[in-house]
Amino acid sequence: MALVSLVIAGLLSGAYREGGVFLWLAPGTDDGARHEWSMRAYASWWASPEAGGPTGPVVYALVASGIAYVIIKHNLMGLCMMSFFFAIRKDVVYAFDTANPDGCHGWKAMQDLLSGVVVSLLISLVGFCSLFLSLSVRQVSWTAPFLLLFLLCVPLFLLLPVALLRSGTKRYREQEIARLRSCFAELRQRAVPGSLEQFEIARAERREIAVIREGRVQLFPVKEMVATVSVYVGSVVTTILGIFNR
């Protein structure tokens, strides 16, 4: 993992050698003049070998590889968690308690935990978008590992938990409704046919089944989900437009 992080740091350094953010900051409209300006700016950058020997590049490599290590480790742990929950999706019953007063049918603790995940994703989006906006199409190839994380892992961490929970609660809902119908069928058999008691049993059955059928678990509040998706889509669109406009 440390070696991969060091390689990514080297790729980022290569992107800067090709112009990187300096090409983005270069004045004027002539491509040749802007490229020449970016090369001079890179040569005077503290982390370039031309600026002051090997000290700058070494320090940059250590800092960049440390940051890359944290990002990769973060996403790797997320992928491990996602693969674990995906593997046990048929062995675990995702139930919900309609009588729980937490407002999330007993899933409030999980919702609070995932709120931290959303914040982490939003911070990652800002960092990724800032990186890619400083690069051109030719230079983006140097940051391919980050680009894959940006385009693949971020949606996965948002959509897979929702899909797994929706599938699990749907299965639970079907099983719970079948169980309720079986229980109420036994109660109706004990009651006198056509009696008020049988009528009340039927009404209670409809009420209980309706509660289960309409029960939904919102892992991500609607406003939070809309804001996150909007930031992600906006980041992707802005990044693509920014890259191809250079």
Note the topology.
Layout lengths: L1 H16 L2 H6 L5 H13 L5 H4 L2 H33 L20 H26 L3 H4 L3 H47 L5 H19 L7 H23 L2
Helix pairs in contact: 1-5, 5-8, 6-8, 6-10, 8-9
Tell me what the structure shows.
The chain has helices at 2-17, 20-25, 31-43, 49-52, 55-87, 108-133, 137-140, 144-190, 196-214, 222-244. It is mainly α and 246 residues long. 78% of the residues lie in helices and 0% in strands.
Short description:
Helices cover 78% and strands 0% of the residues.
Low-confidence stretches: none
Largest sheet: none
Overall residue-averaged pLDDT value: 76
Could you state the order of secondary-structure elements as H and E?
Answer: HHHHHHHHHH
Tell how many strands the DSSP assignment holds.
0
Helical amount among residues, as a percent range?
A: over 70%
Radius of gyration: 27 Å
Strand content: under 5%
Structural class: mainly alpha
Question: Number of helical runs?
Answer: 10
How far is it from the N-terminal to the C-terminal residue, by CA? Answer: 33 Å
* Global shape: elongated
Please supply descriptive tags for the structure shown above:
mainly alpha, 10 helices, 246 residues
